[in-house]
Design brief:
CATH superfamily of the largest domain: FAD/NAD(P)-binding domain
Number of domains: 3
Oligomer: single chain
Number of helices: 19
Helix content: 25-40%
Distance between the termini: 48 Å
CATH topology of the largest domain: FAD/NAD(P)-binding domain
Structural class: alpha/beta
Shape: globular
């Protein structure tokens, strides 16, 4: 396992980020890279810890100690082979994953975990640059046809494995390009879209058919899909955003975060002109409601659009700087996270509830907020408004980044009469099968909005179940 005493000799060294005054002027990726020698030294810090909690915490079961050992020894190709054994898209997770593996790393007991996420992306980028990654279409085709609906991380992962298994896979996407959340929801400064295109091009060369601009349930009916395909995988994500019911919500200048982010990504790709972008923060006072990653992405995008000021508020309490007693290692540390976007210039406030939107001439001018207290009783939290704390935060652009509640229910789901759970997500059994024969589901449409790495894991699981279903259902008796 790498150098058993490497962690004693080598300190944690991160690649770091581009200078702040440089990166806010463009939408290129913020994170820098280490040279190969330093990266191999960082891999040497992965010790023989006995129980690899990093592996335990990874949703795709990455064989982290194994590829760290191979990276340390300079066998980049073998390192990539071990990495690719469990993760279809390490170039995505290596850039945008919150790295629960590092939270669970034994060295994180002393707050100096192995740079697992950075090692991961370094391995896959080396594999691409050295030509280790080449199209590998299946040698034998089964003749069975699978439709995968939704080209986000779950749909891409399912399509990739099903195609490699020899099935004829068609990946449907309602937008103009494939990628789903990866392409239209994550800013370019976190994930370059050239990275997505590179992987999709590889998958196409391996035999995957991608059809974009197709809204299933509208352009093609669910009935037609059932007739044309032997199995269907629904991976449409949880795209219905959580709204904020408050007086003045109808005012102009209040938008959902994903609408704002996807438009900027379309500007970056050249699909629309910057001058034609209907949601632009330039010269405006921006208020982001919601303290998660999507809210952070809105902060960074607003700054790049040259907003006058950016404020982010969150209704939940401010997380602690260090782990609380009820949040021990090796669990994911629920601590204050300061993103690169926050570093670029943002006022942040916690325990603030939105009371009312104020406006003038039908345009939003500010948001009335008040402090709240969270009380714990019988393992349940209750929220209490603090009297006398109401005030107005000036804003002429308000972005709602409060998460997503469930998949879009109109269209395909209603047509196929797919059963939903209590949270209005698609209900599946232990085999990822819905109440409709030969219709499977995966990703956020099943679990609710979650991490990209979880979606990849779900896509991998559903692919294995569909493959088993096809081989069992269509195997002729001997």
């Amino acid at each position: 396992m790498a150098d058993v005493s490497g962690f004693l000799k080598i300190k944690r060294k991160e690649a770091g980020n581009r200078p702040l005054n440089e990166r806010i002027c463009d939408h290129s990726e913020v994170e820098q890279v280490l040279n190969s020698e330093d990266r191999m030294l960082q891999a040497s810090r992965c010790m023989d810890c006995g129980i690899p909690f990093c592996h335990w915490s990874c949703p795709v079961d990455n064989l982290i100690p194994e590829w760290n050992d191979l990276l340390y020894k300079g066998d980049w190709k073998a390192a990539y082979m071990r990495l690719a054994a469990t993760n279809n898209f390490p170039e995505f997770t290596g850039r945008i994953c919150p790295a629960s593996c590092e939270h669970a790393c034994v060295l994180n007991i002393n707050k100096e975990p192995v740079t697992i996420r950075e090692n991961e992306v370094a391995i896959v980028e080396k594999a691409f640059s050295e030509g280790y990654i080449k199209p590998q279409p299946p040698k034998i085709r089964t003749g069975k046809k699978v439709a995968v609906i939704g080209s986000g991380p779950a749909g891409m992962a399912a399509s990739d494995l099903l195609n490699k298994a020899g099935h004829l896979v068609t990946l449907f996407e309602k937008d103009e390009k494939a990628g789903g959340l990866l392409r239209y929801g994550i800013p370019d400064f976190k994930l370059s879209k050239a990275t997505i295109d590179r992987r999709l091009d590889l998958m196409i060369k391996e035999g995957l058919l991608i059809r974009t601009g197709i809204n299933i349930g509208k352009d093609i009916t669910g009935k037609e899909l059932l007739e044309q395909f032997d199995a269907i995988c629904v991976a449409i994500g949880a795209t219905h955003p959580r709204d904020l019911v408050a007086e003045g919500r109808e005012l102009k200048g209040i938008h959902f975060a994903m609408d704002f982010l996807s438009l900027q990504n379309r500007v970056n790709s050249g699909h629309i002109l910057a001058s034609a972008n209907p949601i632009n923060a330039e010269g405006k006072k921006v208020l982001v409601i919601g303290g998660g990653d999507t809210g952070s992405d809105c902060v960074g995008t607003s700054i790049r659009q040259k907003a006058v000021s950016v404020t982010q508020i969150e209704i939940m309490p401010k997380p602690p700087l260090t782990r609380a007693d009820n949040n021990p290692w090796p669990y994911f540390g629920k601590v204050l996270k300061t993103s690169t976007s926050h570093e670029e210039g943002c006022e942040r406030y916690w325990s603030l509830a939105t009371v009312k939107f104020h406006g003038n001439d039908n345009n939003v001018t500010g948001v009335e907020v008040e402090d709240v207290l969270w009380n714990l009783k019988d393992d349940n939290y209750t929220m209490e408004a603090v009297q006398g704390t109401r005030r107005i935060i000036e804003a002429d652009l308000v972005l709602l980044a409060m998460g997503f509640v469930h998949p879009a229910l109109e269209g395909l789901l209603s047509e196929l009469e797919l059963e939903l759970d209590q949270r209005r997500n698609i209900k599946v059994d232990q085999n990822q099968l819905t109440n409709r024969q030969k219709v499977f589901a995966a990703g956020d449409s099943v679990s609710g909005a979650t991490l990209v790495v979880n979606a990849i894991a779900s896509g991998r699981k559903v692919a294995k179940e569909i493959d088993k279903f096809l081989r069992k259902a269509f195997t002729a008796p001997q």
